[in-house]
């Protein structure tokens, strides 16, 4: 059966929209099928952490995102008093962009439309099957039930999605044992006394746009209530009074929601032609604001690899490297959120209240140590994500993020490395300043690789002694060499290009 499109993306949440953009950028015919008739108005996530901001920069989208949010220098971990300090991390975007999820989704949808992604809303995928040539999705839409045929399908359909089950992929982990609540209010008492009481009571207060304020907390008396049970205004006020001594004058509720700590990680991110990304692959308590960010980063890792497979030039194992690289990241996120949840739960549990408070105080002391703070900040910001190098004897840079160095020390119009990634291609950088045969070789890989002639570049400690670098479309280093002999570098370069960007055109 002929394919209607190359790839079906199930779900138009942040992950599905980002993936749609990445695939379309690489020239893949993509259809996003979304069950909801309209985009979500309420925002669960409020954070674009540093690596996600870098990704937007790499795709030339930063000008759209920055004006809609506000930057903050760090984020909390387990709501400990000492914040994670992102500002010490080596990035031009070493801050969190405080931005409502609805904006992130709207901007990604706008970009997807520009790139020609078909986003069909009001379409529920009810089943999926795969065979040797492709996948068939059963879809229920306004005109009734039908099927869509594609070469691959990716489940970006959230924690309760259908793709994972259809792919036969297990989702082991732990069921929900505790829940928190959030409320967005048009009005509340924001005087210093009320805010101090909120802090004392462990209530997180975040100003949203339009004068709306978000409150988030765990109430020990209500934290065993299942997430499926709706939150009432009365319950919210009663909990606030219990925790803070007053209901903080909350009024005009816009959205009340209960969320749980069920934590699961997909056994695999791929089964043949079916793949998973975002919440479909990992769910956890929303501690330190990592879920949406991890989903965007999954999409960035998967998009170019799946596109290479669709276009027929993917080297053996490239698509499987998606699981090898991203599942450990998913595991690390689920583990750190479980630690944060446990720390919160213990302090709210009578038996452990005192030792848990001592433990939190001890951890807070550790967080005040620069090295400890930096390490956790690198993880939560995802700036510290390094993919394992598979080639023996690889340079230490391989797998790490490429620093966004300026391409010329003297000429500010020459741009930066991330500018080279706007089209989603590999970038080969010859840092020898010799611009000889080295830069003619990547041309044999056609549009897959961009290889600007560099006449000088900004220095960076990590790049000392490095002569050539191949940057992947997702901004991680594929290959780097410090070898002094041009002929050896020539051989290494050909091997690296073939290993990552396939055979020459
Ligand atoms: C209270 C709370 C606060 C949070 N705060 C943060 C934060 O600050 N930072 C952060 O990074 N993360 C945060 N998160 C997590 C974040 O909201 C999620 O990780 C993120 O929405 C996941 O995006 P996704 O696209 O993978 O899945 P989703 O956003 O769940 O999107 C999945 C989409 O698939 C659609 N769909 C499902 N099934 C089908 C089907 N069968 N057919 C068609 N469409 C289907 C759904 O309608 C939905 O639109 C928070 C979560 C909660 C609960």
Can you tell me about this structure?
The structure is a single chain. Strands 1, 2, 8, 9, 10, 11, 18 and 19 form an eight-stranded mixed β-sheet that branches. A four-stranded antiparallel β-sheet has the order 14-15-13-16, with helices on one face. A four-stranded mixed β-sheet has the order 22-21-23-24, with helices on one face. Helix 1 runs parallel beside helix 4 and helix 8 runs antiparallel to helix 9 (320-347). It folds into three domains: 5-13 and 40-174 and 264-381, FAD/NAD(P)-binding domain (3-Layer(bba) Sandwich); 179-260, Alpha-Beta Plaits (2-Layer Sandwich), CATH 3.30.70.2450; 412-501, Glutaredoxin (3-Layer(aba) Sandwich), CATH 3.40.30.120. The two termini are 29 Å apart. 32% of the residues lie in helices and 22% in strands. Strand 14 (204-207) and strand 15 (213-217) form a beta hairpin. It has helices at residues 14-25, 50-58, 62-65, 101-115, 163-166, 192-200, 233-244, 291-311, 320-347, 353-367, 370-381, 417-420, 486-501, and strands at residues 5-10, 30-34, 47-48, 70-72, 74-75, 84-85, 96-98, 118-121, 124-130, 135-141, 144-155, 173-174, 179-187, 204-207, 213-217, 251-260, 263-265, 270-271, 274-276, 282-283, 426-430, 449-450, 468-471, 477-481. The chain is built from 13 helices and 24 strands. The protein is α+β, with helices and mostly antiparallel strands. The structure holds flavin-adenine dinucleotide. Flavin-adenine dinucleotide binds at residues 10-16, 33-36, 44-47, 101, 124-125, 156-158, 161-162, 182, 259, 278-279, 286, 289-293, 295. The site of flavin-adenine dinucleotide has 34 residues, from helix 1, strand 2, strand 9 and helix 8. Residues 4-337 form the FAD-binding domain. Pfam families: FAD_binding_3, Rng_hyd_C. Keywords: FAD, Flavoprotein, Monooxygenase, Oxidoreductase.
